[in-house]
What does this fold into?
Amino acid sequence: MRLRVLVPAVENSVAGNAFRPLDVVRSRKGMTVEIGNTDAEGRLILCDALAEACTEKPDLIVDCATLTGAARVALGPDLPVSSAITMERPKRCCRCGIEEDDPLWRLPLHKPYRRMLDSKVADINNVSESSFAGAITAALFLDEFVDPAIRGSIST
It folds into this structure.
């Protein structure tokens, strides 16, 4: 088995050249992203890492990210969120997690919520204007940067 680990890291700091709401940036994939919230800066480097991971056409991508405080609001501090387009691999991961006393809880990647990330000035907004479904819309944002051929991916 070949394993490639990408560690995108970012510092959330204030400076004159920092992102501001309504800025538009171009991602590694070429999509433009409207900065709807500067507190979601991690998503901006995660989307580039996912695009880079897809260049090697892997069988599986596992994205380990907190995604958002909304996941903690929904599930508390001890139960991580899992989301994926396909069902089988996340089901297996959740079963293994329960067996090892390290549970995951699967949230749906509910495609109709994708419209909550629509932007008038870019291909996508990095956050939703709604206060609902924050963890799901965060996962949907990241899913936009994964090659559709690699649908076995799991985001946690």
